[in-house]
Specification:
Helix 1 packs across helix 2 and helix 2 packs antiparallel against helix 3. The chain has five helices and four strands, in the order E-H-H-H-H-E-E-E-H. The chain starts with 12 loop residues before the first strand and ends in a 6-residue tail after the last helix. The relative contact order is 0.19. Strands 1-4-3-2 form a four-stranded antiparallel sheet, sandwiched between helices. The chain is an alpha+beta fold.
Length: about 170
């Protein structure tokens, strides 16, 4: 079934369809970003951008990949003075055992910001898609802690799309 857990602390929320393997990224760090509130639209964009630069980390030094992703974010978001808080939060997420398997993926392909077109010609963008021989995992990052039927509907739509594309895999 669908999961969608939220806490009042700051961080990243992981939304998806597999309750057994995921949890709240926000639980990793309870510290807000300096100068930005939970509802700051730029906050979510920066988190998404940094995470979009990080594919499968197997065989790579995670600190190097995260550092390079943050450097790209500095160029894209020059008005944000300090990306260190973002780097610390994402670093904690990557190191957390509950989420590590989403970043260090064995025997599967990892796609970031994967675009998919539905039957009506509308383009959808999945934050992180992990495709193995027999399974598809959909990861959607959220940085707001408000409950939202829109978030739930979004992930359900992704599940429907992936089931129609990967007929021989569990989604």
């Amino acid at each position: 079934g669908f999961f969608h857990r939220r806490q009042r602390d700051q961080g990243i929320l992981l939304c998806g369809h597999d309750q057994n393997r995921a949890g709240n990224f926000a639980s990793v760090c309870n510290r807000p970003i300096k100068g930005q509130g939970e509802h700051d639209p730029c906050r979510g964009e920066v988190f998404h951008f940094i995470l979009s630069q990080m594919g499968n980390l197997i065989g790579q030094r995670e600190d190097d990949v995260l550092g390079a992703a943050c450097e790209k974010a500095r160029l894209k978001y020059p008005l944000i003075e300090d990306l260190d808080d973002y780097k610390k939060i994402i670093g904690k997420v990557i190191k957390d055992g509950r989420f590590r398997s989403y970043f260090f993926v064995k025997d599967a392909e990892v796609f970031q910001e994967q675009e998919v077109v539905d039957k009506y010609g509308h383009t959808k963008r999945i934050d992180r898609l992990i495709v193995s021989e027999d399974q598809v995992q959909i990861i959607d990052y959220k940085t707001s802690f408000e409950k939202s039927d829109k978030d739930r509907a979004q992930v359900k739509e992704y599940v429907f799309l992936m089931k129609s594309l990967y007929l021989d895999k569990s989604v």
